[in-house]
């Protein structure tokens, strides 16, 4: 199969391909998604096959309006309207209990709930409107590997396996959406996966408490949301997290053990170690925002076989605000491994 690029003037072609059951990768503000008609089980099955994704891992349904969600849900959490008004379109996924038989079981992982998101990307919203169907949209990469933040990343992983890619340049945020569970109208909202919409922002918007689920899902368990597995977003090269005070010791240890090392960090750290390592991917500044935007691209860049790295050291940030999303992805990329003196 030839994988084509779709640009502004070809969005109606992409929409028709999706409606007909073909797979089209699409841009969002977070990462690129792999789109299929959510109402066609055979199309959704292709998504799992192409990604080599476990079928117990539910998919996020992307919509172009909140009205679309109402076709599948009839018992909303009382805070839904406030949350949608403040954060849609945007990097926030909402989990609701759905009407029985409302969506194919392959979309929900056999659960009675489903996850919905309205992405903040004009091209993708237009395509969903033109297709007139909701589309599933897991990250457009091989399952378990770093998510794609450019069309080129998607092409690298899925060329020849999907019909096309809607190209809209690099994504703005760089990690997947926050996922919040609203499936029980009687319970407080719970974050199942951190993202760019933070706990603090949600609490300010609703004027109440939001909890965070810290449970790491093992391979034998069925997750309620994508991205809850213990190990995820992992390149082939071993990744290790490094605290700020441990960088010099980590570099010395690697040199003493004759390890070929790559570093992913902001300018402050990257400049200080660049002559002592084999490769460096530098965030555009030292902020957690830059780190979040660049993490997956950095992991992909340094995982190239031609570099022949034994290990990738990555900068650690404080787990607060956006740092929660960054560290959630980094800890899973590293299999929870930190450099220890």
From TrEMBL:
Pfam family, one: Sua5_yciO_yrdC
GO molecular function, one term: ATP binding
Class in the EC hierarchy, top level: transferase
Gene Ontology CC, one term: cytoplasm
InterPro entries associated with the record: DHBP_synth_RibB-like_a/b_dom, Sua5-like_dom, Sua5/YwlC_C, Sua5_C, T(6)A37_SUA5, TC-AMP_synthase_SUA5
Binding, ATP: 53, 57, 113, 139, 147, 193, 233
Domain of life from the UniProt record: Bacteria
Family recorded in the similarity comment: Belongs to the SUA5 family.
Name recorded for this polypeptide: Threonylcarbamoyl-AMP synthase
Native species: Enterococcus ratti
